[in-house]
Design brief:
Order of helices and strands: EEEEEEHEEEHEHHEH
Radius of gyration: 26 Å
CATH class of the largest domain: Mainly Beta
CATH topology of the largest domain: Elongation Factor Tu (Ef-tu), domain 3
Shape: elongated
Number of helices: 5
Strand order of the largest sheet: 2-1-7-8-9-6-3
């Protein structure tokens, strides 16, 4: 069975349509870690003992990966069958050019997609990301001081293009404008709760839609539900 190597693909654009190149890690990492963080507003009223944390946002996922470049002549070079890696500096520079160095056309580092065989990153096979941290430690040298081995510790932060993010967050997101048609049995507080998870915004929604009598909604009427920050007065 052929060993599947970790692969990094570089793209010019945030839609991941224009591929620039790819890099296969010569040695797969023994492990990697994923980090998920959720931010809450933990402000507490003066004199109170407890608070009710309010959800603010979900931070981008982070993936931390440690791997090795070896130049002792024992690691096969997949690009050159029958040959072995002997130049650590060249491997490091090739890696930097793809994932770290500013692209002269876009004036920013490349967008990246990390893949490792069939490993699933959520609902996707690849992890779309940007390099946000890189540490290089040279750990072995020849008698002339030439590096023979380097350990790279990397942090990649997930990147989701805005239009895709809106699609993946779903139509019920309170951060985008929604239009809903009134059906039999609907009330404004009920419809408001479906969108925002809180019926208390119904007066603002009535004002946004110019409803003179929000207690009696007309069936088949189209109502607009804007982002939360735009409903507050």
């Amino acid at each position: 069975m052929t060993l599947t190597k970790v692969k990094l693909e570089a793209y010019r654009d945030k839609q991941f349509a224009s591929k620039l190149g790819e890099f296969h890690l010569p040695i797969n990492p023994e492990q990697f870690s994923q980090s998920f963080k959720v931010e809450y507003n933990r402000e507490q009223a003066q004199g109170s003992q407890r608070n009710d944390p309010e959800f603010k946002f979900t931070r981008p996922e982070e993936l931390k990966l440690d791997f090795i470049f070896d130049g002792t002549g024992v690691v096969p070079d997949d690009r050159k069958p029958g040959e072995f890696h002997k130049d650590v500096v060249a491997q490091v520079q090739m890696f930097l050019n793809l994932v770290y160095t500013m692209n002269s056309e876009t004036h920013k580092p490349n967008y990246l997609r990390l893949l490792w065989g069939d490993f699933s990153f959520g609902e996707r096979n690849g992890f779309d990301c940007l390099l946000t941290d890189l540490q290089i430690n040279y750990t072995l040298f020849d008698p002339q001081g030439k590096p023979l081995r380097a350990k790279l510790s990397t942090t990649f932060t997930s990147y989701v293009e805005q239009e895709r993010r809106v699609r993946e967050e779903g139509k019920q997101s309170p951060d985008v404008t929604h239009r809903r048609k009134v059906t039999a049995g609907d009330t404004l507080p009920l419809m408001t709760h479906r969108i925002y998870g809180d019926p208390s915004y119904y007066l603002q929604i009535a004002k946004v839609n110019g409803l003179a009598n929000f207690r009696r909604l007309t069936t088949n009427t189209d109502l607009r539900f804007p982002p939360l920050e735009k409903t507050e007065t």
